[in-house]
């Protein structure tokens, strides 16, 4: 898959294409449906499928300080889109100047002059241009003079976790924040993932006999609610069963919120300085304090046992 950052990186000889535009944070099942349809149309027409997205999130430029928690960094979104068959990913730097583009100017500048769109595939709530003034009706109206057609794809409806709402990144973020990682996985179509570099912490886990990888998460990452989770630690090309702790470590009067993963039954694992990923499968219990360190050890042993059982059943 080709990856471009900015319009200037698009090849001069780029021909017609099928395009879909959006933040696509998380590349959840609703996104997968839209992107999948764009890929399908591209294959039918014998042209490339292109996804257009933005960095930073538009809300951070329009309302500084309002950057939403991210479900997936751009490199992860690119991996997921490539798996769906996308041929090219265009990341547009979202600046104050870019945010002021009128909807018609956005269409000309991006879809017509650079990507030569033949078909644009979107969900029904797609908005674009200055103050999100453009909608799918305007997008379709502009398609006639600029020689492209618009196809709309209805979003999936989520299951019990979402209360019947349409699949959305906003809903997924809420479920993650509440610790409902199973509900989030239902929308994403896979476990929620947190990534970062393993750094040295207080090393109490090592002293207690349960050494953990202390993950320094990427900026704006959507981190689950404080507690213990069953999941997987991805490192060195391996997927390892893990017991994951999120929180401030109140047992030892901690104040910094961390994500720590214990690779179950692994001995002598040294991951310091490595970029790793942590997938959250199931919530085990909330963050607690105990009367003694011995009480904490009993709880950790029980957590590891429950995590092992959950992962073996998954």
UniProtKB/TrEMBL annotation:
Pfam families given in the database record: FAD_syn, Flavokinase
Known pathway: Cofactor biosynthesis; FMN biosynthesis; FMN from riboflavin (ATP route): step 1/1; Cofactor biosynthesis; FAD biosynthesis; FAD from FMN: step 1/1
A molecular-function term among this protein's GO annotations: FMN adenylyltransferase activity
InterPro entries documented for this protein: FAD_synthase (IPR015864), Riboflavin_kinase (IPR023468), Riboflavin_kinase_bac (IPR002606), Riboflavin_kinase_bac/euk (IPR015865), Riboflavin_kinase_dom_sf (IPR023465), Rossmann-like_a/b/a_fold (IPR014729)
The UniProt record lists the keyword Lyase: no
Keywords: ATP-binding, FAD, Flavoprotein, FMN, Kinase, Multifunctional enzyme, Nucleotide-binding, Nucleotidyltransferase, Transferase
Catalytic activity, EC: 2.7.1.26, 2.7.7.2
SMART domains associated with the record: Flavokinase
Segments forming domain Riboflavin kinase: 187-312
Name of the featured protein: Riboflavin biosynthesis protein
Organism: Streptomyces solicavernae
